[in-house]
Protein backbone atom coordinates (compact mmCIF):
# COMPACT_ATOMS: atom_id res chain seq x y z
CA UNK A 1 0.00 0.00 0.00
CA UNK A 2 2.86 2.40 0.87
CA UNK A 3 4.47 1.64 -2.50
CA UNK A 4 1.30 2.64 -4.37
CA UNK A 5 1.01 5.91 -2.42
CA UNK A 6 4.65 6.77 -3.05
CA UNK A 7 4.25 6.05 -6.74
CA UNK A 8 1.16 8.25 -6.95
CA UNK A 9 2.94 11.11 -5.19
CA UNK A 10 5.94 10.79 -7.51
CA UNK A 11 3.66 10.85 -10.58
CA UNK A 12 1.86 13.95 -9.32
CA UNK A 13 5.18 15.68 -8.68
CA UNK A 14 6.41 14.94 -12.21
CA UNK A 15 3.18 16.25 -13.71
CA UNK A 16 3.62 19.47 -11.74
CA UNK A 17 7.16 19.90 -13.05
CA UNK A 18 6.04 19.41 -16.66
CA UNK A 19 2.99 21.68 -16.53
CA UNK A 20 3.15 25.01 -18.42
CA UNK A 21 2.86 28.28 -16.55
CA UNK A 22 -0.58 29.90 -16.69
CA UNK A 23 -1.69 33.45 -16.14
CA UNK A 24 -4.81 34.30 -14.17
CA UNK A 25 -6.76 34.17 -17.42
CA UNK A 26 -5.96 30.50 -17.86
CA UNK A 27 -3.87 31.11 -20.97
CA UNK A 28 -0.33 29.70 -21.16
CA UNK A 29 2.32 32.39 -20.91
CA UNK A 30 6.09 32.52 -20.97
CA UNK A 31 8.09 34.39 -18.40
CA UNK A 32 8.97 37.84 -19.76
CA UNK A 33 12.71 38.11 -19.24
CA UNK A 34 13.36 39.90 -22.54
CA UNK A 35 14.90 43.38 -22.55
CA UNK A 36 12.18 44.23 -25.04
CA UNK A 37 9.59 44.30 -22.27
CA UNK A 38 10.37 47.98 -21.76
CA UNK A 39 9.37 48.83 -25.33
CA UNK A 40 5.68 48.10 -24.94
CA UNK A 41 3.31 47.56 -27.85
CA UNK A 42 5.61 49.26 -30.35
CA UNK A 43 8.50 46.85 -29.86
CA UNK A 44 9.73 44.71 -32.75
CA UNK A 45 7.59 41.62 -32.31
CA UNK A 46 9.17 38.82 -30.29
CA UNK A 47 7.21 35.73 -29.36
CA UNK A 48 8.63 32.65 -27.61
CA UNK A 49 8.80 29.64 -29.89
CA UNK A 50 8.98 26.06 -28.65
CA UNK A 51 11.48 23.64 -30.10
CA UNK A 52 14.22 26.15 -30.94
CA UNK A 53 17.14 27.44 -28.94
CA UNK A 54 20.15 29.66 -29.05
CA UNK A 55 22.38 26.61 -29.26
CA UNK A 56 21.28 26.17 -32.87
CA UNK A 57 23.12 29.38 -33.71
CA UNK A 58 26.36 27.57 -32.91
CA UNK A 59 25.86 24.67 -35.32
CA UNK A 60 28.86 23.62 -37.37
CA UNK A 61 28.42 24.53 -41.04
CA UNK A 62 27.69 21.68 -43.43
CA UNK A 63 29.92 23.23 -46.08
CA UNK A 64 32.85 20.82 -46.50
CA UNK A 65 36.23 21.98 -45.14
CA UNK A 66 38.17 23.66 -47.90
CA UNK A 67 35.07 24.55 -49.89
CA UNK A 68 35.80 27.65 -51.94
CA UNK A 69 33.11 29.65 -50.17
CA UNK A 70 33.11 33.43 -50.50
CA UNK A 71 30.50 36.12 -50.05
CA UNK A 72 31.11 37.62 -53.49
CA UNK A 73 29.27 37.79 -56.79
CA UNK A 74 32.28 36.13 -58.40
CA UNK A 75 31.70 33.09 -56.22
CA UNK A 76 27.93 33.14 -56.70
CA UNK A 77 28.43 33.22 -60.48
CA UNK A 78 30.24 29.87 -60.28
CA UNK A 79 27.20 28.18 -58.72
CA UNK A 80 24.27 26.66 -60.59
CA UNK A 81 20.80 28.09 -60.05
CA UNK A 82 19.46 26.88 -56.73
CA UNK A 83 16.15 25.34 -55.79
CA UNK A 84 14.55 23.99 -52.68
CA UNK A 85 11.51 23.53 -50.53
CA UNK A 86 9.14 26.09 -49.05
CA UNK A 87 11.80 27.29 -46.61
CA UNK A 88 14.15 28.06 -49.50
CA UNK A 89 11.35 29.83 -51.37
CA UNK A 90 10.47 31.98 -48.35
CA UNK A 91 14.09 32.95 -47.69
CA UNK A 92 14.69 33.69 -51.37
CA UNK A 93 11.61 35.91 -51.56
CA UNK A 94 12.59 37.77 -48.39
CA UNK A 95 16.07 38.44 -49.77
CA UNK A 96 14.64 39.49 -53.12
CA UNK A 97 12.16 42.00 -51.73
CA UNK A 98 14.28 43.22 -48.81
CA UNK A 99 17.79 43.34 -50.25
CA UNK A 100 18.13 42.37 -53.92
CA UNK A 101 20.01 45.62 -54.66
CA UNK A 102 22.61 44.84 -52.00
CA UNK A 103 26.10 43.47 -52.48
CA UNK A 104 26.55 39.73 -52.07
CA UNK A 105 27.83 40.34 -48.54
CA UNK A 106 24.75 42.44 -47.80
CA UNK A 107 22.48 39.61 -48.92
CA UNK A 108 24.27 37.14 -46.68
CA UNK A 109 23.93 39.55 -43.75
CA UNK A 110 20.16 39.92 -44.16
CA UNK A 111 19.84 36.14 -44.48
CA UNK A 112 21.75 35.81 -41.21
CA UNK A 113 19.16 37.88 -39.37
CA UNK A 114 16.29 35.76 -40.67
CA UNK A 115 18.01 32.51 -39.72
CA UNK A 116 19.15 33.92 -36.38
CA UNK A 117 15.52 34.70 -35.61
CA UNK A 118 14.44 31.21 -36.63
CA UNK A 119 17.00 29.64 -34.32
CA UNK A 120 16.74 32.06 -31.39
CA UNK A 121 13.75 30.58 -29.58
CA UNK A 122 12.27 34.10 -29.48
CA UNK A 123 10.67 33.96 -32.91
CA UNK A 124 8.85 31.27 -34.92
CA UNK A 125 10.92 28.19 -35.67
CA UNK A 126 10.63 28.21 -39.47
CA UNK A 127 11.84 30.70 -42.07
CA UNK A 128 8.38 31.06 -43.58
CA UNK A 129 6.84 31.86 -40.21
CA UNK A 130 9.61 34.34 -39.38
CA UNK A 131 9.23 36.39 -42.56
CA UNK A 132 5.42 36.39 -42.37
CA UNK A 133 5.21 37.14 -38.64
CA UNK A 134 2.83 39.97 -37.90
CA UNK A 135 1.23 39.97 -41.34
CA UNK A 136 -2.29 41.33 -41.08
CA UNK A 137 -1.59 43.12 -37.79
CA UNK A 138 -1.27 46.89 -37.93
CA UNK A 139 2.33 48.06 -37.48
CA UNK A 140 3.40 44.53 -36.57
CA UNK A 141 4.91 43.24 -39.82
CA UNK A 142 8.48 42.24 -39.18
CA UNK A 143 9.50 42.55 -42.83
CA UNK A 144 8.14 45.50 -44.75
CA UNK A 145 7.47 43.67 -48.01
CA UNK A 146 4.94 41.46 -46.24
CA UNK A 147 2.66 44.44 -45.54
CA UNK A 148 3.49 47.12 -48.11
CA UNK A 149 0.52 46.26 -50.31
CA UNK A 150 2.75 45.85 -53.37
CA UNK A 151 2.65 42.81 -55.61
CA UNK A 152 4.92 39.94 -54.63
CA UNK A 153 5.50 39.03 -58.27
CA UNK A 154 9.13 38.46 -59.27
CA UNK A 155 9.90 40.98 -62.02
CA UNK A 156 13.68 40.56 -62.01
CA UNK A 157 14.35 36.84 -62.58
CA UNK A 158 18.13 37.24 -62.69
CA UNK A 159 18.08 38.93 -59.30
CA UNK A 160 15.94 36.10 -57.95
CA UNK A 161 18.43 33.51 -59.20
CA UNK A 162 21.17 35.44 -57.40
CA UNK A 163 19.36 35.66 -54.07
CA UNK A 164 18.26 32.04 -54.43
CA UNK A 165 21.89 30.96 -54.41
CA UNK A 166 22.49 32.90 -51.20
CA UNK A 167 19.39 31.36 -49.64
CA UNK A 168 20.56 27.87 -50.59
CA UNK A 169 24.02 28.42 -49.10
CA UNK A 170 22.63 29.84 -45.88
CA UNK A 171 20.08 27.07 -45.43
CA UNK A 172 22.92 24.61 -45.97
CA UNK A 173 24.69 26.19 -43.00
CA UNK A 174 27.11 28.62 -44.54
CA UNK A 175 28.91 30.51 -41.74
CA UNK A 176 26.98 33.19 -39.90
CA UNK A 177 29.73 35.51 -38.74
CA UNK A 178 28.92 38.84 -40.35
CA UNK A 179 26.44 40.44 -37.96
CA UNK A 180 27.43 39.25 -34.50
CA UNK A 181 24.20 37.29 -34.07
CA UNK A 182 21.95 40.20 -35.06
CA UNK A 183 18.18 39.83 -34.79
CA UNK A 184 17.29 43.25 -36.20
CA UNK A 185 18.27 45.52 -39.07
CA UNK A 186 17.14 48.62 -40.88
CA UNK A 187 18.34 50.66 -43.85
CA UNK A 188 20.52 53.71 -43.43
CA UNK A 189 17.71 55.86 -44.80
CA UNK A 190 15.58 55.47 -41.67
CA UNK A 191 16.13 55.77 -37.92
CA UNK A 192 13.52 53.66 -36.12
CA UNK A 193 12.90 54.40 -32.44
CA UNK A 194 14.01 50.92 -31.39
CA UNK A 195 17.50 51.29 -32.89
CA UNK A 196 18.52 53.27 -29.80
CA UNK A 197 17.44 50.48 -27.47
CA UNK A 198 19.61 47.74 -29.00
CA UNK A 199 23.32 47.13 -29.50
CA UNK A 200 24.63 48.05 -32.94
CA UNK A 201 26.64 45.03 -34.11
CA UNK A 202 27.48 45.72 -37.76
CA UNK A 203 27.00 48.01 -40.74
CA UNK A 204 27.00 46.17 -44.05
CA UNK A 205 26.00 47.78 -47.30
CA UNK A 206 22.82 49.79 -46.88
CA UNK A 207 21.82 48.15 -43.59
CA UNK A 208 22.63 48.54 -39.91
CA UNK A 209 22.38 45.45 -37.73
CA UNK A 210 21.57 45.08 -34.04
CA UNK A 211 21.50 42.52 -31.27
CA UNK A 212 19.15 42.67 -28.30
CA UNK A 213 22.07 43.00 -25.90
UniProtKB/TrEMBL annotation:
Protein name: Cell wall hydrolase SleB domain-containing protein
Entry superkingdom: Bacteria
Signal sequence annotation: 1-23
GO molecular function terms attached to this record: hydrolase activity
Keyword Signal: yes
Record-linked InterPro entries: Cell_wall_hydrolase_SleB (IPR011105), SleB_dom1 (IPR042047)
Pfam families the record matches: Hydrolase_2 (PF07486)
The keyword Metal-binding appears for this protein: no
Domain Cell wall hydrolase SleB: from-to ranges: 101-210
Keywords for this protein: Signal
